[in-house]
Amino acid sequence: MSKFLSKRLQNLEPYTPGEQPQDQQYIKLNTNENPYPPSPWAAEAINAAAVNQLRLYSDPTCEKLLQAIATRYELQPEQVMPGNGSDENLFFALRAFCDEDTPLAYADVTYGCYKVWAGLLHIPSHVIPLEKDFSLDPKKYYSLGGETIVIANPNAPTGMALPAAEIEKIVQANAGGVVIVDEAYVDFGGESCVPLIKKYPNLLVVQTFSKSRSLAGARLGFAMGSAELIADLNRVKFSLNPYNINRLTLLAGETAMRDEDYFRRTCGIVAATRETTAQELAKRGFAVLPSKANFVFARTDKMAGGALYAALKEKGILVRHFDAPRIADWLRISIGKPEDMHKLMEALDAILENASRANAAQPTD
Ligand code: PMP
Q: What's the 154 CA to ligand 1 centre distance in angstroms?
């Protein structure tokens, strides 16, 4: 920390992203990436001609991409705003809809960036604990008096989801504030709130190309809501970074959005692999939360979360462990290809057998 850093930022604890090793020696199940490549249409679109165009700025209005997203979600292009990853959409939304007098309400166990951004933007946080079983009680979000609310649905890192009808009641009960629904993982089995946009001018839905469309490295997300809310977000965007989406990403996003068959097929495979993974973990005595996302959240009584994470890493498998209250014994495991998950089970069997042998060898007095 230099002596020049603003006092306001000195206590800020930045978000720690999951490990991104730059070699290929790990089975990577730690940052909820898709194990399948993006649509072949995206690869075709980013061809040499597109690369030659990199000397020119990208389209600040993202017109073709907006058209593709609007068509897919039955909205008008003015109801959509792309972001440099949905992280940027969410950050812009907090910048636009929160301030010292308009706190941000969110769960205690949820996506860690909400808290970090609130800190960076000097927004007061209203943290609402999840229930003992990590479910979210919608009633705790009714009538929050104009606060901005953000709900990840499905939630991360739990994977648990609320039906859209429950979110609708929250949106209805908070007509004086904006409700942001972060649907980063919705395509793997959750119920989207996009159809509610036409009924509620205070609803903003944020999605991403990072997970279900296999474009995490392209950095592309999108917010959807009333034209007025989207105009507010554009006000922030055009005050910060008008060319926030680069040319290659615009092409990859537009083509991937149009390839509906590929999207459905790969999401279906990931969801099916999630179900078999959850069953295999349960067979081994793990508690596994009911997930609608492309990951599962699981724990075992046989080993502490941190130790199991380290043992898996030693065997070349990366999963995510959060050293945080309530979840320190849980691991978030992204869904890979079936063969990756098979290797995970083999590694778990070896590690847990070792641990139980070591336990049995302990003196008992
Ligand atoms: N929301 C949630 C709940 C997430 O888990 C993530 C990424 N890990 C994001 C948003 C942001 O994803 P991206 O910026 O890649 O779209």
A: 11
CA dihedral 282→331→309→358, nearest 10 degrees, is -40
The label of the residue with tokens 């809501």 reads 225
pLDDT in tens, 202-226: 999 999 999 999 999 999 999 999 9
Residue 92 in this model has a pLDDT that exceeds 70: yes
pLDDT digits (tens, 9 = 90+) for 112-126: 999 999 999 999 999
268: CB partners within 8 A, 6+ apart: none
Q: Which atom of ligand 1 is nearest to the CA of 216?
A: 15
The vertex-31 CA angle with 25 and 33, nearest 5°, equals: 85
DSSP 3-state of 138: helix
* C-alpha of residue 113 to centroid of ligand 1, in Å: 9
Cβ of 184 closer than 6 Å to ligand 1, yes or no, is yes
Q: Separation of 86 CA from ligand 1 center, angstroms?
A: 6
- Inter-residue contact 209 to 235 (CB < 8 Å): no
Q: How far is the CA of 87 from the centre of ligand 1 (A)?
A: 6
Tokens representing residue 5 in the block:
């850093």
pLDDT band of 365, cuts 50, 70, 90:
low
The finding on whether 208 has its CB within 6 A of some atom of ligand 1 is yes
Closest to 216 in 3D by CA, of 14, 24, 37:
37
Return all residues near 142 (Cβ < 8 A) that are at least 6 apart: 169, 170, 173, 174
